Amino acid sequence: MSEFPWGDNVLDYIIGPQKADEFFGDYFERKALIIPRKDPGRYSDLLSIARIDHLLASHDFNGDSVDMARAEPQITRDQFILANGFADRGSIAHLYQEGATLILPQLHQSELVLKSFSRALEAELSCHVQTNIYMTPPNNQGFRTHYDDHDVFVLQVEGEKLWRIYDQTVDKPFRGEGFNIDRDEPGELVDEFVLKAGDAAYVPRGLMHDAQTQGEADSLHITVGLIVKTWADLMLEAVSEVALQHPEFRQALPPRYAHAEFDRSSAEAHFKTLVAKIAEEANLDNAFDLFVDNFIRSRPPYSEGALTGRGATAEPGAKFRLRPYIPWRLAEDGDRLVLITAGGELVFPASAEAGLDKVLDGEVFGQSAFEDAGEDEARKALDKLFGFGVVERVS
């Protein structure tokens, strides 16, 4: 049985009873999904208002790790950030009393349970996951109507929040293509719903929305952002690989191309030649493999227990297994094996192959799994896997 509050199925924890296949087929990147429940404690293991209060009192938040917002009147950062760049606890408390929303961006980077939750969802979706925390006092609104440039799950932890959804104005905006109040109109109101504690919602990027606390209790919700790679990203990588092989892609644009009288006919002919070369040689597998490896390497290693359990691998009879949600890919490099995993690459001799197969197959194993490599290499292999958080002890 899993030690995590989301069990062995993190997506079901978020959107259940909605089935994953239905979610990806009918809602993902298309339309909002609201999941009402009568389970107010569903997300209480992730965070609480009491925990936020403790963090504010005990942590020295800098300007990157805390923010505040209020629809009207708006707030400027100098109202709650000191001259040294750190948060002014007293001003934050006072502004919150006056209706401002407290925001803790990227809290998963410092809170282990949120980090573990994000890691599990990353393993499921193959995208970067971030958590931003929003705590709003009763009868107040943090942001005006807007859209986000990334898809989000909204997990209502405590209190209630009224959400309004408007006509979508931007279909799948690029990352960084943010809302502009002078350019983007919200359109007509198309849906209105209340998220209560334990409820969740999915809001695709580009969908106009706003939200405000409802009722007499403070509202706490976690916005889980999905930072995805797009087909445009993949195509750019594939084109870059072709360009590395053919110097004609790297030629300068024609001299005087910016002149009004420039004749583009020869440029158009060359452009069509390059497009044909891309169509002929662009390689999906090469670009995909690079994206897979970059995604795996960019995940933070799971280091909990690496220091306190540093002698665990030397204890007679100790047993281990692959840690849940650890991304990996095993590759060969001459006479060496390279395990691409969270945080980088781990290199092993070819004689460790049988042991690595047992590890990656999910078997419970001990140091003897690497006996083909010899006692010294077996110990080194196990120490490396444990130290980098790839495996965890089970006995």
Features:
29% helix, 15 strands, 395 residues, alpha+beta, Jelly Rolls, 10 helices
What's the structural blueprint in terms of helices and strands?
Layout lengths: L9 H6 L4 H7 L6 E3 L13 H10 L8 E3 L19 H9 L3 E4 L7 H14 L2 E9 L14 E8 L1 E7 L22 E8 L3 E4 L5 E6 L4 E9 L3 H15 L19 H17 L2 H15 L21 E3 L5 E6 L2 E6 L2 E6 L3 H8 L14 H13 L3 E3 L2
Antiparallel strand pairs: 1-8, 2-3, 3-4, 4-10, 5-8, 5-10, 6-7, 6-9, 11-15, 12-13, 13-14
Estimate the strand proportion: 15-25%
- Give the number of helices: 10
**CATH-derived topology of the largest domain:** Jelly Rolls
Q: What's the rounded overall pLDDT mean?
A: 93
Q: Helices and strands, in N-to-C order?
A: HHEHEHEHEEEEEEEHHHEEEEHHE
Largest sheet: 7 strands, antiparallel
Shape annotation: globular
Number of strands: 15
User: What is the CATH top level name of the largest domain?
Assistant: Mainly Beta
Strand order of the largest sheet: 1-8-5-10-4-3-2
Structural class designation: alpha+beta
Uncertain runs are: none
* Helicity level: 25-40%
Distance between the termini: 15 Å
Overall tally of domains: 3
Q: What is the CA-atom radius of gyration, in angstroms?
A: 25 Å
Give the name of the CATH superfamily of the largest domain: Cupin
CATH architecture of the largest domain: Sandwich
